[in-house]
Amino acid sequence: MLTAFGKVLRKFRIEHQLLLKDMADRLDVTVAFLSAVEVGRKKIPANLISKLKSVYTLDEERVKELVEAAAISNNEVRFVNLDQMKLPDREGVLAFAKNFENLKSDEKEKIISILKGIS
User: Fold this and answer.
1) Strand, coil or helix: what is 49?
2) What is the pTM of this model?
3) For the chain, what is the largest distance between any 2 Cα atoms, rounded to a whole number of angstroms?
4) Over the range 27-36, which residues count as b (16 or more CB within 10 Å of their CB) and which as e?
5) What is the mean pLDDT of the chain?
6) Of 66, 6, 72, residue with least CA distance to 37
7) Each residue of 31-56: pLDDT tens digit?
8) What contacts 58, CB < 8 A, 6 or more positions away?
9) Distance CA 111, CA 85 (A)
């Protein structure tokens, strides 16, 4: 699943008929890395937008769009693969994600301690 940043980047590549490999080569990164950034498996490097701007001479509107999408993407968690999980585990992960912010502070601390292996 693409992140907000990945969607903007992919849209740009399609508009300019660029393959992922072409863009990766021009940005001096691997195809795997650029793909991972698009789907949120890797964080967006701090210098990526400036690199994109200089390599592709992006206008300020496109840069702003990338910056805003990066801010959204940096606040998303994308690396939990539910497809391979058994149903009870998947339900647990989803319940945790949906309800965590509604827990009391002491409940959160207890869960975090358990997850970190501290009893």
Assistant:
1) helix
2) 0.65
3) 54
4) bebeeeebbb
5) 90
6) 6
7) 999 999 998 888 899 899 999 999 99
8) 52, 66
9) 20
